[in-house]
Amino acid sequence: MKIAVTTPTGNIGRALTIRLLGAGEQPILLARQPEKVREFIEQGATVQHGSLEDKEFVVEATRGVDVLFWLTPADYGSRDLRVFQNTLGDNAAAAVRTNKIPRVVDLSSVGAQLAQGTGPVVGLRDVEKKLEATGAHITHLRPGYFMENFFMTAGSMASHGAVFLPVPGSARVPFIATPDIAAVAAERILDATWTGRSVIELVGPEEISFEEAATRFGDAIGKKVSFSEATPGQTREALTAMGVHENTANLFIELYDAIGQGKFTSEASPKKGTTTLNSFAKDVFRPTFDAMTR
Hints:
Elements (H helix, E strand, L loop, with lengths): L2 E4 L4 H12 L5 E4 L6 H4 L4 E4 L5 H7 L5 E5 L9 H19 L3 E5 L12 H13 L4 E7 L10 H7 L1 E4 L6 E2 L4 H13 L6 E7 L4 E2 H12 L4 E4 L2 H10 L4 H15 L10 E2 L4 H17 L1
Parallel strand pairs: 1-2, 1-4, 2-3, 4-5, 5-6, 6-9, 7-11, 9-12
Antiparallel strand pairs: 8-10
Helix pairs in contact: 1-7, 3-4, 4-5, 8-11, 9-10
């Protein structure tokens, strides 16, 4: 089977590539930085060097593939993130049409069933529609809130003993680890029997509040960590200081508002991952936190 994988240097793309190689496949990796996937080349993967913003590159790199794994990355410095997402969606759709790619596994998000009010997720909904219009067999993976998002709060945990986010601490979401997402993506990619349009919603094994999540991360790193609800203004200031464009920052604030209102939820019975927040905090987050604060 000829499989093309986008974003192979990211959390999901990397874990997916490892699984595909382990299954005996030799995926084609679309990468902007080939040096970061050199280990995969040594294991049989092929690397196509280029940007997903380049339509000609995406079309050429996916010629003859049987399955395309498409992940629309976020450009945090973009003045208009939705335009950026739509541009990449157009490029993906052009590749699918031109190359008559039979199957596409698309990484979207919980909440993509909503036409507005979910910030950057609306752009992922746009990409879903563009891919569906190609006539290919499509599976949209819609995961919940990534556990890895807490890496962005490691600094505040270290300096203030707190997680600051613009969402009520009591808001409950099904946190999911990205390797669990990659596992489902690999299973779907390697299955050549499905047809039509499918949506698979993905969540973690338990639904907990942000307050409880902060406590669990604190337990894992051996430090008292509390949760503090940040204002939209504070969040905007923090994000722009990190290089996020103000318009894009506003979209993420809208997403957190949707989470607080309970909109960031599954439509049906989601597929559950196996990684608990406790194990993620202890086995994945803590080593990074320790290295950062050493």
